[in-house]
Amino acid sequence: MLKNSSIDHHHFSKNRNKIAPHIVIIGGGFTGLTAAYQLTRQGYRVTILEKEEEVGGLAGSFNVNGEKLEKFYHHWFTNDKYIMELVKELNVEDQVTYRPTRTGVYYSKNFFKLSSPFDLLNFKPLHLLNRIRLGLFVLWVRRIKNWKKLESIYAKEWLSKVCGRQVYQVVWEPLLRGKFGIFAESISAVWFWNKVKLRGGSRNKNGEEMLAYYRGGFAALAECLKTKIDISGGEIKTNVIVKELIVEDNHVIAIETSQGRVNADAVIATPALPIIADLMAPHVNAEYVERLRQIKYLANVCLVLELNRSLSKTYWLNVNDPNFPFVGVIEHTNFESEKIYGGRHIIYLSKYLLETEDLYQRSKEEALDYSIPYLIKMFPEFNRDWIVDYHLWKARYSQPIVLNNYSQLIPETTTPLNNFYICTMSQIYPEDRGTNYAIREGRKIGNFVDNQIKLTKLGN
Ligand SMILES: Cc1cc2nc3c(=O)[nH]c(=O)nc-3n(C[C@H](O)[C@H](O)[C@H](O)COP(=O)(O)OP(=O)(O)OC[C@H]3O[C@@H](n4cnc5c(N)ncnc54)[C@H](O)[C@@H]3O)c2cc1C
Predict the structure, then answer these.
(1) Taking the model in full, what pTM does it have?
(2) Is the Cβ atom of 303 under 6 angstroms away from ligand 1?
């Protein structure tokens, strides 16, 4: 264990693979991969333990006609600077593609394009003055710097006050409800401020939305990180479930996994907090574990359809109709060409929900049967024969629920176990979770653990 170990940090960087401390990272999502990339470059021995067959976590992929596609729709904003810095550093900048995207809203049985300020001016469900008010709000939000003032205000209160009742009811309320369900009215204005700021800022000079993607999908970037980790001597073990921490003298000395024991000098945990709470519970006081459980998460279900034709011209369709069970219809192949997937058009139907809700429990066949009548209501020409194949992906911990004064709920990186560190998407704040921030936090925790190790050594 690190505290009493004879490993000398000043030596391992010269003679690294023999005597460097061994850092174990639980989880091979983008946080874990970036932390491993950072630490292997600094000369540490690193092992990632990932329970799934492949790395990528929530940004993980599956095969469509031999090509990798994200299980849950993914893109970047043009202002996602940590991604852009990483791809530059990895020398793969040319793999990032930027494209204008068509966004829209389904409201009151009609489709409205909402990609540019001009579209907003034509958005009939709002009175003209309210369209202008909404446009001004989006511009104003981008200039707000002091988000702390919003911490104790509910998004509902804030949006109704600043945008007015009609804008709230037509535009924002359905989105809040679609995303957070029964928690909609408890969501903090900070979450909304950040979402509007990010999305509103990802635009070209004509004000049209621009988004970014990676050739070969997010899986190709994960693969690139994997290769770098590999070259630097790191190890990635997939299909390995972390079951238990082996703790001595308040230090984690090893990790018990489904594939045996792995010794550790320090551990970084990246899964959702309830998973970390379960692992820590036998070793720390109950009060601390309860604190970890304070942040709640929503689950997500994505029904992915591979169609033999396109559903619409829109990439991102917000469903502002409470009678439709999905919050968004995302036609990925209106962003990345269908040619890549052998001519198949990819549609995601996304729903955030509680894991106890009916849809989360359903099989893929049941989920499809349930969804088709709604799809037909929306796209009357849609026919079941268009479906070439389909998939259902579920994530239990997909979105932390950002309540008022969320900053007070976020756990520290350090824990009561001296060499056990927490770095998860629920700690990303005031921004919301996303691979851009997973990369920022992965780097940060890498540097933090490096410093902690140096400090401990100096203390010896
Ligand atoms: C529907 C949806 C859409 C999204 N869209 C976007 C988008 O467009 N752009 C974007 O940038 N981000 C998007 N995100 C968010 C993004 O996917 C996440 O923020 C990011 O992938 C989180 O990475 P992470 O490594 O922190 O966590 P995770 O990806 O959750 O990684 C944690 C890892 O820990 C593993 N694990 C858990 N328990 C154990 C155990 N006991 N033993 C071993 N391993 C374990 C998990 O399998 C997982 O791989 C989206 C997310 C969802 C759900």
Answers:
(1) 0.94
(2) no
